[in-house]
Amino acid sequence: MEFSWLILLPFSAFIRLTLCYQDGFLSLTCGGSVNYVDSSNVSWTADGYYVSKGNISSVVFPEGTSRSLRFFPDSLGRNCYRLPLHNTSSLFLVRSTFVYKNYDGLEKPPVFSVSLGTAITTTVNLAHTDPWIEEFVWAPNKDVLPLCFHSIPNGGFAVVSSVELRPLPLGAYSAALGDWSSKLMRKAYRINCGYVDGPLRYPLDPYDRIWDADEDYSPYHVSSGFDIDSNFSLSGIKESPPCVILQTGRVLARWNSLVYALPLDNLGDYHVVLYFAGILPVSPSFDVLINGNVVYSNYTVARWEASSLFFTVRGIRSLNVTLKAIAYYPLVNALEVYEILDVPLESSSTTVSALQVIQQSTGKDLGWQDDPCSPTPWEHIGCDGNLVTSLRLSDINLRKISPIFGDLLDLKALDLHNTSLAGEIQNLGGLQHLEKLNLSFNRLTAFGSEMEDLMNIRVLDLQNNSLQGEVPESLAELKDLHLLNLENNKLQGPLPQSLNRESLEVRTSGNLCLSFLTTCNESSSNSSLQTPQVTVFTPGKRKNHSHLGVLLGVVCGAVLALFAIAFSALLYIKRKRGESTSIPKSEVDMHTWGSARVFSYKEIKTTTNNFKQAIGRGSFGCVYAGKLPGGRLVAVKVRFDKTQLGGESFINEVSLLSQIRHQNLVSLEGFCCELKHQILVYEFLPGGSLADNLYGAKSKKLTLSWVRRLKIAVDAAKGLDYLHNGSDLRIIHRDVKSSNILLDTEMNAKVCDFGLSKQVAQSDASHVTTVVKGTAGYLDPEYYSTQQLTEKSDVYSFGVVLLELICGREPLTHTGTPDSFNLVLWAKPYLQAGAFEIVDESLEGSFDAESMRRASLIACRSVERDALCRPRISEVVAELKEAYNLQLNYLGTSAAN
Ligand SMILES: *[C@@H]1O[C@H](CO)[C@@H](O)[C@H](O)[C@H]1NC(C)=O
Ligand SMILES: *[C@@H]1O[C@H](CO)[C@@H](O)[C@H](O)[C@H]1NC(C)=O
Ligand SMILES: *[C@@H]1O[C@H](CO)[C@@H](O)[C@H](O)[C@H]1NC(C)=O
Ligand SMILES: *[C@@H]1O[C@H](CO)[C@@H](O)[C@H](O)[C@H]1NC(C)=O
Ligand SMILES: *[C@@H]1O[C@H](CO)[C@@H](O)[C@H](O)[C@H]1NC(C)=O
Ligand SMILES: *[C@@H]1O[C@H](CO)[C@@H](O)[C@H](O)[C@H]1NC(C)=O
Ligand SMILES: *[C@@H]1O[C@H](CO)[C@@H](O)[C@H](O)[C@H]1NC(C)=O
Ligand SMILES: *[C@@H]1O[C@H](CO)[C@@H](O)[C@H](O)[C@H]1NC(C)=O
Ligand SMILES: *[C@@H]1O[C@H](CO)[C@@H](O)[C@H](O)[C@H]1NC(C)=O
């Protein structure tokens, strides 16, 4: 029996079916230098913009045409094209053509692998097929899709000649696969069944899929052209096969089974799509079998209708598609077969951005792009699945262990030898999986307080640093430690006996005096207490002060990006005479501790019941509730970090603070400064902070009457007045804010946190920003711009506190109109005009207008931009007292009425 339906397709039908769909096409001619439009009307672009590596070459084909190509002699790392996906929700076809054709004259076709996103997709072997074309279908849901080539040992240089990106119709190919986040497809076959005249693609297929001719697929076929009626419906098929592909089909003629036997490259899972079109004058029906199993029984192809079937077949090495006749003659018009590939999970975005920040801080391009672990780990990085478990950096300039390292939570091994690290070992306490830490050949000076948190550490290499003082006892808490290398440091004193155990090798050579024997001179171990320096100024030499301000500003500014200055406190000592000089602490009498006492760490632990109850967390550290042996309640502040300034400066400041005693300043009860701890013990104020009382969750706003607010203001101003003028010391608080004003049970107010916050060592800018947020609204703009610090900066901040008391709102908000975001800018014009409608509404009707006027005017003057126009704090105290008395009188009169 012969088939004789052979109706030629009118030419016009072709035109009708040709859509001009080039939106979203990206066609790169690799190594090319000119853009052009090819015979299929596809616009080709030179690839330079999309790839950063590789050398350019070209091949000339025997027929005279030539083709440019790009090869990648740099065998290390990923060689990537980064393809922009303008519509991340779309499905894409990515096609890459690899041509060797002996372009290098070496007759050595390369073998290399190709990855897309995180997935290694295939191995290209140009000795086997040249040119080699790969096609992938994926909805990667990214902005940028990396297509990379990876050399394999002795495989030669990867070489590529074109890269194409094509959007595919929405919903196509996904029905059986579902989730594109974990799967992508690699084309195995796309056959235009029954068609023998070469491949068809764009513009016949508007999506530019290449449909291969059927001619190679013997043993038997009939190729025919059939009319596609104008009302022929493709609407049910999401893959939108072009009509021109469906108008031909392979039809069984002689045997009762139509078979496609398709060898496959790999053992794996495959997605098979069969397309049928009712182009015969009959409606044939047949069973569909895949590898001998019926996957669809009695399938009927209706006349004038197009349809498709898809199957996912798992774990196959070859594929037989068999159509077994039931009625008439089985027919198929097109078929596609894709290998389904798993897409490895990406690393967490926290890890990726931390690594990007680290790359930036090295000042080098480490080639760290896209995912750190897949398809192959970045250089310097080791992975376990999508977890970054090791990081090795050396011979670069990191300077300090930035907090960002603390984000690499899965690290098991961290090697930062020879990276110019200085200061203390910090920010690593959160790395609970860390087993191996190599910080050798740096300039680290202190162990820091987080060492004992590294519960799983096994190897700790600290050789050739500048570690000073004693080896902290807490290292003994690291039970798994079996190598501790402390060679070539400046450590001294006996090693803690608890480190003397069989499972642990401690290397100590090259230190001042370090061993388990107690023969070392212990007197030197307390050096931090004995050598602090105090900077002394002549009170008359104003110039010196501003120089110091500028100097500190510049130094801090460089590190802390201006903002952090707000957290520093600058202490001046007024001496009767003499030049600016430094004196060793040994010359300062021990009685300068005042009434503050020195606590041991053990005592602190007892006092706080082992740090049981945290009552606050500030820029400085954590605050814990504590109880002294006598029953007195205290607030115990434990610093997060020591600073670059180190222990000496801590001792200096404690020494100064311990001399400050005033009823409106929270007093220092004592401190603890054992090698790795810096702890301050303050009197405990049960009333909470002014900020808590104004804005706290359990807002006591209503209980804060105007007279109470004025009392608090007077108290706090008196405290500041004492700091500025009250003693031999001249102290600028530098962090006056409503949360630094504490209340006792009688609503007496005391200023706290003075003089110490400068030791917040934050050279990491991102952390400074988060810390600064709370204080930003209090910052003296003039100090901020000139970096010249005077007491007037405290006055400004205090003025902001006054405005808070008056208006009952925080200094910065993001509600309301932009005009009202900043309390100072918003409130000042109203208050200056005596427009008291902006006064806290809970005060409405309960304040004396003159009292309010006095308070608001002094508040407005305090927040003048020009520091010279601001009052001194003593004047503020006087004015507030007036306002207070006026309000008392008002209350007295209104009570009498
Ligand atoms: C080629 O494409 C352009 C638009 O991209 C279109 O205007 C032109 O008609 C096309 N030419 C052919 C021969 O299809
Ligand atoms: C690749 O190019 C670089 C400079 O562009 C050149 O130094 C190198 O020799 C080239 N490599 C090969 C294998 O041609
Ligand atoms: C992105 O693609 C989806 C599906 O193809 C489409 O619905 C959507 O309109 C496209 N969005 C843009 C901005 O092109
Ligand atoms: C259009 O399709 C219908 C079936 O849906 C068929 O009956 C009709 O003959 C077709 N039109 C032409 C012109 O062939
Ligand atoms: C596919 O068919 C060929 C011959 O038709 C047969 O030799 C082969 O075993 C079949 N493969 C499978 C997996 O059924
Ligand atoms: C196949 O299906 C058609 C209708 O779709 C039905 O008429 C016919 O009897 C079925 N044949 C077999 C063998 O089941
Ligand atoms: C440390 O790194 C510097 C470059 O930063 C390098 O010059 C030096 O040789 C390295 N030292 C060691 C001991 O590796
Ligand atoms: C740490 O790094 C240094 C420098 O590469 C190396 O000599 C030393 O062996 C490393 N330490 C460990 C414990 O691997
Ligand atoms: C390590 O320290 C020792 C002793 O200070 C010194 O001799 C040696 O050169 C240092 N090694 C390196 C690589 O700096």
UniProtKB/TrEMBL annotation:
Question: In which domain of life is the source organism classified?
Answer: Eukaryota
Q: Which GO molecular function entries does the Swiss-Prot or TrEMBL record give?
A: ATP binding; protein serine/threonine kinase activity
**What positions does the entry give for ATP binding?**
637
> What SUPFAM superfamilies does its record include?
L domain-like, Protein kinase-like (PK-like)
- Show which residues constitute the signal peptide: 1-20
Please give, as recorded in its UniProt entry, the membrane topology of this protein: Single-pass membrane protein
A GO-annotated cellular component: membrane
What main location does UniProt list? Answer: membrane
A matching Pfam family: Malectin_like
Q: Which UniProt keywords apply?
A: ATP-binding, Kinase, Leucine-rich repeat, Membrane, Nucleotide-binding, Phosphoprotein, Receptor, Repeat, Serine/threonine-protein kinase, Signal, Transferase, Transmembrane, Transmembrane helix
CDD domains, alphabetically?
STKc_IRAK
Report the InterPro entries cross-referenced here: Kinase-like_dom_sf, Leu-rich_rpt, LRR_dom_sf, Malectin-like_Carb-bd_dom, Prot_kinase_dom, Protein_kinase_ATP_BS, Ser-Thr/Tyr_kinase_cat_dom, Ser/Thr_kinase_AS
* Domain Protein kinase stretches: 609-885
Stated name of the protein:
non-specific serine/threonine protein kinase
Q: Which organism is it from?
A: Salvia splendens
Q: Which stretches are transmembrane?
A: 548-573
